[in-house]
Each structure stands twice: as structure tokens, then as C-alpha cells.
Amino acid sequence: MKRWIPDRTTLFLIAVAIALAGLAWLRGGFPLVVDGLSSGAGKLLQVTPLLLAAFLVAGLTQVLVSRQVIERWLGSSAGWRGILLACLGGALIPGGPYVYYPIAGALLRSGAGLGVLVAFISAKNLWSVTRLPYEFALLGPRLTLIRYAVTFLLPPIFGIAAEAGFGSKIDGIREAMR
After folding, report:
1. In angstroms, rounded to a whole number, what is the distance separating the alpha carbons of residues 43 and 129?
2. What would the pLDDT profile of 47-85 be if each residue is shown by its tens digit?
């Protein structure tokens, strides 16, 4: 059985949690620490079904779509086509970071290019179609349309720039993930 060894990010987050628990203890004693832990546990329970679904989608995507297909359509050599597909996917995928980061990670492991991944995440954050009703309702149609017009070209530009500047480092990034 393989033993779990925490990476630096996990160790850092554990250290931050311990430091915050210590700060809570100093400010309000044991009851404040319990309130903080209770709040965190509640949030974990709330997002667990979403996390589970996102990781299942990411894992199933990775095994159902071959590396050759991902590399052909979304790899570094896919060029504009891959970046535009990633932008479309990012704009249309529902959910928050719990959903799209596991999918982006699966795409990375399956052969997607760096520019594609940057375009996907940028489009999700700037063009999210699922956010449109909220923006129209809260900001009004004029401000929403101005925001979309101003940000329209950014995800493809970010993807192209990331691929041009750092695309050759994608294998090193994949290796660091293992």
C-alpha cells in the first residue's frame, strides 16, 4: 500500500490552519477555535458533493477521451482551434473553481497545451455564461454588456501569450504534478 506523503502546498496550508487556530485561541479561546472549525466543516460538507462530482468528471474524462484526441484538439500544436475550443468550454462549463480546476488538471495530465489551459480558465472567469443572469439582474444589461465587450478578447490573448511564452515548459509542469 502506498503511503501518503504531503506535498509542500499541503504542508503550507496545514501550517496556515494551525496558525489561524492559534490566533483564534488568543483572541477568543477554545469557543472561537471550535466556531472556526465548525464553520470550515460545514463548508466542507456543503461542497463535498460538488467536489466529488467534479473529480469524477475529471477522472472519467481522462480515461474516456484518449490522450491522442486531447493532444490533437487541445494540445500545444492545436493552435487557434484549441484555444478557441478552450474558451468556449470555459465559458459554458457551470460551477466554480471546485468544478473547473479538477477538469483543467485532467486536461493537463491528458495532453492539453498550456495556452489552452490558460484560455479555458480565463474564459471561465471572464465569460461565464452561467453568471450572465446574475450580472444582468444585479448590474443591469448595459454594464454587463460593457464588461463582456471589454473582456471579450482577453482569454484568447492570454492563451496565445501563455503558449508563446511558456508553452515549451508544459512537460516540466506535467512532471511536477506527478
Report:
1. 25
2. 899 889 888 988 888 888 888 999 899 999 999 999 999
**Residue 59 within any structural domain of the chain:** no
Q: What is the pLDDT of residue 73?
A: 93
Q: Is residue 163 one of the residues assigned to a domain?
A: yes
Q: Is the pLDDT reported for residue 134 higher than 80? A: yes
Asked if 123 and 78 touch (Cβ cutoff 8 Å), the reply is no
The dihedral region occupied by 173, where left means phi > 0, alpha psi between -120 and 50, and beta the remainder, is alpha
What are the tens digits of pLDDT across the range 87-115? 999 999 988 888 899 899 989 989 999 99
**Spatial CA neighbour of 123 closest among 84, 173, 162:** 84
Instruction: Domain of residue 36: give its range.
Output: 8-50
Residue 69: half-sphere exposure toward Cβ, Cα within 13 Å: 7
Domain count, the chain: 2
Does 31 reside within a domain?
yes
Residues 44 and 113 in one domain: no
Instruction: Quote the CA–CA distance of 162 and 156 in Å, as a whole number.
Output: 10
Contact present, 127 and 148 (Cβ < 8 Å) = yes
Whether 84 and 160 share a structural domain: yes
